[in-house]
């Protein structure tokens, strides 16, 4: 996170740089201000009692059989072995989640970038459009929005009817194993506003002279997009990609609601977190649920690490020289 | 670039934008009308407008479930969201001030740790946290929903406020210190008032996220008495009979009203908050 250049830093860089230089030696050498810990106490308590402590316990639980009522029984790698060899529903949840992440994230980023480019000009009404496109990002995560979505995509609902009007007769999306996940993907894409706003801020940072110079040299719109917009925007794309992927791996509410609380038709909407909830809080197999949580953490960490690693191949930092 | 005259291009652009607006806002408009349609019309007629306006859904839905009215769910949601906002603003700004301005050992390491927790899936701490609250007899109360916020576990907001405080000229708090202000008073009278924009952003997002939160509330609240709005709406998830549609959409529409109002009141700030800090909606 710290390595990212956020599109519109709230801090004026020179001031921040001065601050950092000024207090680093003092902070390290001359010890602490006693007041600091008074300010930090709530956060430290939370970090120890609600983050680090529970993480250690959850790691331990992942190697046990634990139902909350009897004490945990150590079973070594049993939970992990069961996940990948004996639990078809687990594998199904992995499959569903991976498909969801792989389709919804690129789709959402593409839509948000295209709309951001559409809005990147100075015309009347920009504020209205920007706000209207952003609204679903705030509403979309709610149960209410998911209930609406489910009705829209039901058999005989508006989506069915509209597609039938154009000659495409689809089954009830929410009840069909093939279409059900697609409706959840679309619910995710509907919330394109948040990355769009970030893209828009990024686009505003690209100096207009670059486009003007390229246009004079005869570059068309597509080539300017490919050779100016994309590279200049790559840090923002990188940021949005990481955040959206982390987010998508943990999607829960839409899958719960649209899948009717039980994973949808033929477990087609059995998202990872949904299955984790079922295992932990309906079956009370808390050791297994902890193990699942750690696999999720590992997957998110690996995916993030891969994105960070490949970043130097495609993320372009304008200020590369003065970073040395 | 100048193939078309300016006005024609401008009109084309507005048409395109309005088409997208129509698609994006359609589900919300649809919901608003569905909530006042006769139940048998909700899915059977494509027209947005009802043949006659029916408010049965609102009266029926408001009765709630198991003798607990929906008004109670709203009250609970407002209580949880309100306390969360207060807890988050207080605890996150305290931690942020330490990170942004004070000197202490391991500051760099602790800050890096805080940033890492931004990416931590909530599920890794979920089960032990649940066991702790269960042992303390706090399951089925609002404590598990609010205590984490009182202890600044939402690193997003700590980070947001740190970033903002770093932008406040240091000369201001140095002047206060030289004039004899204690660190506490400098925080309270100088830095905190100057951080108001960040605190407002934190409040709005905390409110909306808590209002929408479903997972944690479902895990911790079991009694219908304690239900929040998302849990009240959950009762509609299993029922697919059309007779309930009126109540379901009426309550869904009501559930979105506070967010819509917040959005209309603060949309500039919200959108700017997102673009400067990368907060997700």
From TrEMBL, chain A:
Classification via PROSITE patterns: ABC_TM1
Superkingdom classification of source: Bacteria
Ranges for region Disordered: 1-30
TM segment ranges: 37-63, 98-119, 131-152, 179-203, 232-252, 286-308
PANTHER family: ABC TRANSPORTER PERMEASE PROTEIN, ABC TRANSPORTER PERMEASE PROTEIN YESP-RELATED
Family stated for the protein in its record: Belongs to the binding-protein-dependent transport system permease family.
Protein name (database record): Sugar ABC transporter permease
Annotated organism of origin: Amycolatopsis melonis
UniProtKB/TrEMBL annotation, chain B:
Keywords attached to this entry: Cell membrane, Membrane, Transmembrane, Transmembrane helix, Transport
Domain annotation ABC transmembrane type-1: ranges: 74-266
Residues spanning the membrane: 12-33, 78-99, 111-133, 145-165, 186-211, 245-266
Membrane topology type: Multi-pass membrane protein
Subcellular location: Cell membrane
Alphabetical list of InterPro entries matching this protein: MetI-like, MetI-like_sf
Family: Belongs to the binding-protein-dependent transport system permease family.
Protein name, entry field: Carbohydrate ABC transporter permease
């Amino acid at each position: 996170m710290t390595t990212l250049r956020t599109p519109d830093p709230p801090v004026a860089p020179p001031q921040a740089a001065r601050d950092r230089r000024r207090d680093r030696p003092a902070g390290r050498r001359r010890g602490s201000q006693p007041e600091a810990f008074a300010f930090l106490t709530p956060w430290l308590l939370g970090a120890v009692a609600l983050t680090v402590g529970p993480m250690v316990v959850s790691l331990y639980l992942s190697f046990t059989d634990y139902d909350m009522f009897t004490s945990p029984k150590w079973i070594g790698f049993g939970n992990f072995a069961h996940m990948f060899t004996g639990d078809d529903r687990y594998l199904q949840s992995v499959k569903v989640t991976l498909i969801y992440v792989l389709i919804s994230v690129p789709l959402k980023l593409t839509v948000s970038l295209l709309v951001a480019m559409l809005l990147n000009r100075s015309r009347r009404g920009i504020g209205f459009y920007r706000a209207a496109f952003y609204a679903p990002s705030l509403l979309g995560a709610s149960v209410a929005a998911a209930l609406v979505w489910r009705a829209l995509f039901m058999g005989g609902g508006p989506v069915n009817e509209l597609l039938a009007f154009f000659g495409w007769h689809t089954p009830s999306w929410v009840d069909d194993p093939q279409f059900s996940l697609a409706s959840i993907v679309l619910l995710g894409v509907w919330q394109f506003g948040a990355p769009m706003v970030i893209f828009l801020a990024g686009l505003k940072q690209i100096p207009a002279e670059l486009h003007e110079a390229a246009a004079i040299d005869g570059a068309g719109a597509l080539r300017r997009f490919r050779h100016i917009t994309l590279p200049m925007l790559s840090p923002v794309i990188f940021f949005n990609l990481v955040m959206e992927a982390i987010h998508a791996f943990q999607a829960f509410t839409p899958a719960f609601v649209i899948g009717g609380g039980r994973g949808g038709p033929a477990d087609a909407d059995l998202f990872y977190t949904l299955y984790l909830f079922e295992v932990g809080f309906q079956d009370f197999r808390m050791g297994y649920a902890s193990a699942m949580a750690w696999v999720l953490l590992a997957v998110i960490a690996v995916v993030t690490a891969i994105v960070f690693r490949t970043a130097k191949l495609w993320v372009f930092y304008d200020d590369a020289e003065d970073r040395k | 670039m100048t193939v078309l005259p300016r006005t024609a291009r401008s009109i084309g652009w507005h048409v395109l934008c309005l088409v997208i607006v129509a698609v994006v806002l359609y589900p919300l408009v649809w919901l608003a009308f569905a909530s006042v349609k006769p139940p048998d019309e909700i899915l059977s007629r494509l027209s947005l407008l009802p043949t006659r306006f029916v408010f049965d859904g609102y009266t029926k839905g408001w009765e709630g479930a198991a003798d607990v009215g929906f008004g109670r769910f709203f009250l609970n949601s407002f209580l949880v969201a309100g306390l969360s906002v207060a807890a988050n603003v207080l605890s996150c700004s305290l931690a942020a001030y330490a990170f942004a301005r004070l000197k202490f050992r391991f500051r760099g390491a602790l800050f890096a740790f805080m940033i890492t927790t931004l990416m931590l899936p909530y599920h890794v701490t979920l089960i032990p946290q649940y066991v702790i609250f269960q042992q303390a007899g706090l399951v089925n109360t609002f404590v598990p929903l609010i205590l984490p916020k009182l202890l600044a576990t939402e690193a997003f907001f700590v980070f947001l406020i740190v970033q903002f405080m770093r932008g406040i000229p240091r000369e201001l708090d140095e002047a206060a210190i030289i004039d004899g202000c204690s660190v506490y008073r400098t925080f309270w009278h100088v830095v905190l008032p100057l951080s108001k924009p960040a605190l407002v952003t934190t409040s709005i997002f905390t409110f909306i996220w808590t209002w929408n939160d479903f997972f944690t509330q479902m895990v911790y609240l079991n009694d219908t008495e304690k239900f929040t709005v998302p849990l009240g709406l959950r009762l509609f998830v299993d029922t697919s009979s059309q007779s309930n549609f009126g109540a379901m959409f009426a309550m869904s529409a009501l559930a979105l009203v506070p967010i819509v109002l917040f959005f209309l009141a603060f949309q500039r700030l919200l959108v700017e908050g997102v673009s400067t800090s990368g907060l997700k909606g």
